[in-house]
Amino acid sequence: MDMSIAALSVSMHQNQAMQDMGVAILKKAMDTTEVATEEMLAELAADPNLGAMVDIQA
């Protein structure tokens, strides 16, 4: 393992850039999921009478 300081620095920066990109992608996925969940909950709450009465027959 004979690496120069410059090569080690470049390698470390490349790893950090890849990690930063992965975190950014995960944040975007979380934001997209949050928006989709909020839209779904808004659609479910559109009719306040939905589910107010349940008919049960034995």
From TrEMBL:
It holds the Pfam family YjfB_motility. This is Motility protein.
